[in-house]
Design brief:
Keywords: Hydrolase
CATH class: Alpha Beta
CATH topology: Arginase, Chain A
CATH superfamily: Histone deacetylase domain
Structural class: alpha/beta
InterPro entries: HDAC_classIV, HDACs, His_deacetylse_dom, His_deacetylse_dom_sf, Ureohydrolase_dom_sf
Domain Histone deacetylase: 19-288
Strand order of the largest sheet: 2-1-3-8-7-4-5-6
CATH architecture: 3-Layer(aba) Sandwich
Number of helices: 10
Protein name: Histone deacetylase
Pfam family, one: Hist_deacetyl
Length: 300
């Protein structure tokens, strides 16, 4: 069964005019139910992570300041969200959704988190709508509990996973791979274990050829026993914050390639949604829903 982490706090309200599309976190579950990809039994509400789980990936001083609302105005400007207790609860629930999703991935082969993919969160600070790095927390959780030995972070969001690269810069058991827009934020990139920076306007064909070659390389050189997949749909040509040129069909084929590869090689995969900022909300929701459709089709 495809298990999907979702909690009502995912759609935490932001001030009017905020550019981050929080509505997608409410509309995506509704779309999945409407089209029959999911039933209510597919969804689970994550609990709260332990402090120990968070601190494996994040600095204690940063976590304390985040919880207690003591981050400076400058630090919160870099995050892009106004601080609130509800926002902190949201970040914690998202992280726990990914942790619980790891267990479902080990059981069923794949699991999904309606939110997450907060790859700009560093060990000691937040950036660009990311405050706690859910997949980094999940990867450390697997290692600490001897549930995986060789983990691949497969980051296909249009933005480089700079926070993830920093967190795992000295962790040999985690291999960080980011394929992203060369001209996209962050403009000062960190160094992942493997980075592929794509030119502005990269079309479906070029993108999918590079991804196919990369997956073959990663299987041969990394040989992971668990994958965290960040499936951002900001690779679309329509995306306001992206620089690539993919169509909805190209985005769908990306997901198909990843899920067929992980399924064929029997590697459990936890998937977090990542970014999507197309002008039409229906485009964002349709692109994200296609990721679930593909996972359901291939695994179940």
């Amino acid at each position: 069964m495809l298990k999907v982490a979702y909690h009502p706090i995912y759609k935490h309200p932001l001030p009017d005019g905020h550019r981050f599309p929080m509505h997608k976190y409410d509309l995506l579950p509704q779309q999945l139910l409407h089209e029959g990809t999911c039933t209510p039994d597919n969804f689970f509400e994550p609990g709260m992570p332990s402090q120990a789980d968070i601190l494996r990936a994040h600095d204690p001083g940063y976590v304390r300041a985040l919880r207690e609302g003591e981050l400076t105005a400058r630090q919160m400007r870099k995050v892009g969200f106004p601080w609130s207790p509800e926002l902190v609860q949201r970040e914690l629930r998202i992280a726990q959704g990914t942790i619980e999703g790891c267990h479902f991935a080990l059981q069923y082969g794949v699991s999904m988190n309606i939110a997450g993919g907060t790859h700009h969160a560093y060990s000691d600070r937040g950036e660009a709508f990311c405050m706690l790095n859910d997949q980094a927390i999940g990867a450390h959780y697997l290692l600490a509990n001897n549930l995986a030995n060789r983990i691949l972070i497969l980051d296909l969001d249009v933005h480089q996973g700079n926070g993830t690269a920093e967190i795992f810069s000295n962790v040999e058991q985690v291999f960080t791979f980011s394929m992203h827009g060369k001209a996209n934020y962050p403009f000062k990139k960190e160094v992942s274990d493997l980075d592929i920076a794509l030119d502005r306007g990269t079309p479906d064909r070029v993108y999918l050829e590079k991804l196919s070659a990369s997956l073959s390389f990663l299987l041969d050189t990394v040989n992971p026993d668990f994958i965290f997949y960040l499936s951002g749909v900001d690779i679309l040509e329509t995306d306001k914050l992206g620089t690539l040129g993919l169509s909805l069909e190209g985005c769908r084929r990306r997901d198909e390639m990843v899920f067929r590869w992980s399924h064929r090689h029997q590697i459990p995969v936890q998937c977090s949604m990542g970014g999507g900022y197309s002008p039409q909300l229906r485009t964002i929701v349709s692109a994200h829903a296609a990721t679930y459709q593909m996972a359901n089709q291939i695994y179940f």
